[in-house]
Fold this sequence. Notes:
Blueprint: H1 2-5, H2 9-16, H3 24-33, H4 38-57, H5 67-77, H6 91-107, H7 120-136, H8 140-158, H9 170-183, H10 187-206, H11 212-216, H12 235-243, H13 252-265, H14 269-274, E1 280-281, E2 286-289, E3 298-301, H15 304-316, H16 340-353, H17 368-386, H18 414-425, H19 433-448, H20 452-456, E4 463-464, E5 469-472, E6 481-484, H21 487-503, H22 527-541, H23 555-572, H24 576-587, H25 592-601, H26 603-618
Antiparallel strand pairs: 1-2, 2-3, 4-5, 5-6
Amino acid sequence: xxxxxxxxxxxxxWLLNSALAPHLDAFAAHLRRGRYGxxxxxxxxxxxxxxxxxxxxxxxxxxxxxxxxVKRFLGNHLPRCDCPVPVMRVHDDLRAALGHLLHVLREQGxxxxxxxxxxxxxxxLRRYDEHMREVRGLSAGTCRGRLRTVERLLRYKFAGRxxxxxxxxxxxxxxxxxxxLALRSxxxxxATLAAALRAYFRYRMTCGDRVHGLLGxxxxxxxxxxxxxxxALKPADVERLLAxxxxxxxxxxxxxxxxxxxxxxxLRCSEVAKLALADIDWRAGTVTLKRxxxxxxxxxxxxxxxxxxxxxxxxxxxxxxxxPAVFVRRHAPRDQPIGADAVRRVIRDAYRxxxxxxxxxxxxxxxxxxxxxxxxxxxxxxxxxRQFEPRTEVPDESVFGPVPGRVAPHxxxxxxxxxxxxxxxxxxxxxxxxxAIFETLFGLIASAGLRVSEALDLLDADVDLTVGTxxxxxTKFAKSRQLPLHPSTxxxxxxxxxxxxxxxxxxxxxxxxxxxxxxxxxxPLGERQVHRVFIELRDQLxxxxxxxxxxxxxxxxxxxxxxxRVMLWHEQGTDVDQAMLALSxxxxxxxxxNTYWYLTGVPELMALAGGKFERFVAEPGAxxx
Length: 625
């Protein structure tokens, strides 16, 4: 009853002296389960007090409450309300509070459940709904939209009568379409209307009805926007999009993980929203998609970047809840999964933050590379089909450009790495832990060739400065390895560890690189923050890009490590073929061919290899065989 006592004395009296008094505890418990905020809860209770006074004035018992009663209160009483102040008169708050009240009363059995609609039209809609869900495998939203359109058509022709499709004439369909387009004559509305009617008549065709004449009067509107290629994000836009989830946002980890799911795995917004904890197999590195489009169930590989983003959200930001969904609501009603609309809103908000003018969430998995890969699969089929259908056109393979492969990275010069470390040292607060973190992190990646995720996943126990080794555990391809470090790297890590231990309480299980602000102090440093800081420093330094990724990246520090090592072997006369296996193991490559790529994919090493070949050919007797 604490909620009641927080009210002003007048509305408190209305509640306690009303027929709703026995149900107040249940109503309060319902709001607590939903974890509604204190202000919202107080507003709902004040709304119920206003409704209770009206019930008392009308001598209305609880048993007669239903949606029609609420409609009467909001439509008839509220506009002419003269109840004494203080009284809640906000229409939307009253409607929301009374919706919760009816839910609680039905849970308690105090009022009757909503009666199921009956009639010939309802029976027809129920059969069509079952066909869409069970046979076609359409989503719930698509089913609801089409049922609304079909219901309007059937009531237009068969109100109060049996549904006999044979009595539905083409002229009836034409008039129905014209009347509805007169209310809202947009291209999208016309397309939705045409699709819903065409789908229904095709269903009736499977029931044995002759509907060819009805289908003939449904015209699809011109939709010229489909004539252009799908709008895709450029690599630079993708990088800025991922970096836009700053700590100042309400839920940055959730937003970053959502974008990663759409970007890396090409998930639809509805598939992201439906993702459950049990769908992720962390050991196998897979994600099972259930209840997807056309009722399919797919198993997809879980990219490392996506897995890290999901794990970061689950560990540090996901609200405590019993709901099995991965992404859950932050606001009341809590313990509920987010919807597809929330996923779209997260992506569109991110677009706006980086200045993108369009808001198509589908663009995240419509990169030029996606189109090129799909075209590569389509062209052999088109060539095969042309044997039987000579008019079949084989699309040109250059429509989307080449299929993306590995492109040349930016190989850092030694002076650029020194500039980066110096710029990190100047970060605010100067002399504090934050500059030391980023200077040491970037230096470690450059000197040991680590992936960014490998450096951020290091625990304090993984860094053995006594023997000068790093233990990199369960990284990409579930591999672990132990790396020897250069003495200068060991000294830099030791300086950083001493500074960190003075400011952050550390154990063997503490992350080696930690956050420094607010609640993130002592927590593992987030990859998004690292990329954001790097982009700021890169823009300050104004480097000239010598790679093909749209700008120097942190990962290029790893490539630079590998290239410098191979170049040093060339200078020392080391047999590179023999040494490449050691480099492949040190870098954690799954196949040695991934390491040999540097010899052909990096201009600096291509030049060395070409010079070596020229010297080989120039030697006497080299071509005798």
